Amino acid sequence: MSKIKSVFDSLLKSQAKALIPFVTAGDPNPEMTVKILHALVDTGADMIEVGIPFTDPMADGPVIQRASERAIANNVGIKRTIEIVKEFRKKNSHTPIILMGYANPMEAIGIDLFIELIHEADVDGVITVDYPPEESKEFVEKLKSKGIDSIFLLSPTTEDKRIKLIIEQATGFIYYVSLKGVTGSANIDIEQVTERVQNIKKYTKLPIGVGFGVRDANTAKEVALISDAVVIGSRIVQEIENSPPSEMIEKIKALMMDMKKAIEKQEMTG
Amino acid sequence: MQAYDLPDQFGHFGQFGGTFVAETLIEALNELRDMYAKYKDDPDFLAEFHHDLKHFVGRPSPIYFAERLTKKIGGAKIYLKREDLNHTGAHKVNNTVGQALLAKKMGKPRVIAETGAGQHGVATATIAARLGLECVVYMGLEDVKRQSPNVYRMKLLGAKVVPVESGSKTLKDALNEALRDWVTNVSNTFYIIGTVAGPHPYPMMVRDFNSVVGKECKDQMHELCDRQPDAILACVGGGSNAMGIFYPYIDQEKVRLIGVEAAGHGLETGKHAAPLSSNSAIGVLHGNRTYLMQNDEGQIIETHSVSAGLDYPGVGPEHSWLKDSGRAEYVAVTDDEAMAAFHNLCRVEGIIPALETSHALAYAEKLAKEMSPDQIILVNLSGRGDKDINTVANLSGISL
């Protein structure tokens, strides 16, 4: 069983929801990324999304674009991203790691080599933002053969027919993009998200994570009430961008604890 | 030979093309694909399209025999398809008229576009004004600085120009930003892409609208010379002017199709914008799979060309297919060669060509010499060079 599934299974038993933070590998530098990953786990991350820096991240808003630019300035690309995961794995073998990136870097080093390398680094899942299911059947099969989950995005505009097509290929969990826009966009409409998530649940037993617009503890709480996982990306990257190096880890921890508390609180009442 | 019928229903030209976008854009692309399929052969839609091409753009554009240039070079006769005489000064307007009409049919009150040199932005702003659509144009900050007259032209036409400060602050980043806008405003917005790149159906749709160029050439060459050219030349950045003139000729195998890329400071220097001629690797960018200038970890590398319109790291997927299939040839000429051809055409023929077009002209001069006087080269004179006079003056050490 994949680590992602077992984490969700055990959360389900205690009726808890997963907190999934996102950081870009190599932002602000490779050493700090490893420290940040451990800090995220210490403060309640159930799994972590690690972004692969890319020069042209067309689905990302300005905050994550700048994170990519900082990482690339540090010479971090797809191979060093995997090295960073390996470094993290030296001290942590239990927290699922999901790589999130764009197709071109993966194809550039070769899909087979990419999968071999991430398998070695004990990566648990992959989100390839610009690989819709129609263009990625072979990729998904290859990941599956190594026991790595393929996580797909569903958007507010995805029609029911297409939801069925996507869940046929998806494993691990479904990532529901909570708004029309790029990462870190304006606040989400929780009523609409609730309705959409319930609709997706009709088609799949896979857990559903919600991301792209969770900016504060209150939103995290509302999202946790209606989904299985809360993804927090731009908000964490903002802390990396705005904090002096000496305070960065503490700032991230404080934000994470806020989010974690908000998610846990609703468990007691809900 | 089997009639040419690419792309397939998924937008694939062999291994190239396709739909590589985030899920957030898929429904918008499906809607566009369906609406384009509905209107592309609709007689009323086509009548409206051709009416505007005739009365608003000024088509058909003439073919002109460059007699003095031919004499000066020696060799094959050089003919020019005068897209520079179109309203707004380039071929770009052909496909924007088509896309804007489609936007109108789809009930989208707002259009967006990306632009490099500003020609596609100006063409989009122009047709948006003509049809009463709101228009937002994304333009890299570097290009906003380099092309200030075109920025002002767009503003005069009522468009909002948004400088893009991410990445390399040029055309590819403007395209990223336009895609981000589209994701956010899908319900009321039509994205008018300026070249034969992007996700399906854009490469096909832009080609189809712009193929009016090649279709006219077939009739005009027949009328003028009673035969078709031996070779057709066009510059290739994204490749829309080349696809527009190549496409109707793909099935005529005797006609050589030659795309001319920007070799910048020289292919060997790495400072160029010639993914096809420099044997770049295949990759995925802006929604399609194609030859792409990138490093060995798939980061897109910065390109260089004296002409902003060719300064793009990728190329339309159909060109990648035409290259691999051998149906078209691709070559590259340097900034200096293009500049020399620019000055040549100005002085010998009284036509100021765009710097993009000057690349095709430079190769035409080389090729003509190798051919005999009874042979014919047709160059797509894709745009006029008025927009480039500041760049040319700067390069000549003159401040205007």
Fold topology:
The complex is a heterodimer of chains A (270) and B (400).
Chain A: H1 3-13, E1 18-24, H2 30-42, E2 48-51, H3 62-73, H4 78-89, E3 97-101, H5 103-109, H6 111-120, E4 125-128, H7 137-145, E5 149-150, E6 152-154, H8 160-169, E7 174-177, H9 190-201, E8 208-211, H10 217-226, E9 229-232, H11 234-242, H12 245-269
Parallel strand pairs in A: 1-2, 1-9, 2-3, 3-4, 4-5, 6-7, 7-8, 8-9
Helix pairs in contact in A: 2-4, 2-12, 5-6, 9-10, 10-12, 11-12
Chain B: E1 12-13, E2 16-20, H1 23-39, H2 43-57, E3 63-65, H3 67-73, E4 77-82, H4 92-105, E5 110-115, H5 119-131, E6 134-140, H6 141-146, H7 148-156, E7 160-164, H8 171-184, E8 189-191, H9 202-210, H10 212-225, E9 231-235, H11 240-246, E10 256-264, E11 281-285, E12 287-292, H12 317-325, E13 328-334, H13 335-349, H14 355-370, E14 376-381, H15 389-395
Parallel strand pairs in B: 4-14, 5-6, 5-8, 6-7, 9-10, 9-14, 10-13
Antiparallel strand pairs in B: 1-2, 2-12, 3-4, 11-12
Helix pairs in contact in B: 2-4, 3-13, 4-5, 4-9, 5-7, 9-11, 10-11, 13-14
Number of strands of chain A: 9
What does the radius of gyration of chain A come to?
A: 17 Å
Low-confidence blocks of residues of chain B: none
CATH class of chain A: Alpha Beta
Give an account of the 3D structure:
The complex is a heterodimer of chains A (270) and B (400). Chain A has 270 residues and is α/β, with parallel strands linked by helices. Chain A has one domain (3-269): Aldolase class I (TIM Barrel, Alpha-Beta Barrel), CATH 3.20.20.70. Chain A contains 12 helices and 9 strands. Chain A has a 9-stranded parallel beta sheet. In chain A, strand 6 (152-154), helix 8 (160-169) and strand 7 form a beta-alpha-beta unit. The longest helix of chain A is centred in the C-terminal third of the chain and has 25 residues, at 245-269. With 400 residues, chain B is an alpha/beta fold. In chain B, strand 1 and strand 2 (16-20) form a beta hairpin. In chain B, helix 2 (43-57) packs across helix 4, helix 4 packs across helix 9 and helix 9 (202-210) packs across helix 11 (240-246). Chain B is globular. The termini of chain B are far apart. The model of chain B has no long low-confidence stretch (mean pLDDT 96). Chains A and B meet through helix 3, helix 5 and strand 6 of A and strand 2, helix 1, helix 8 and strand 11 of B.
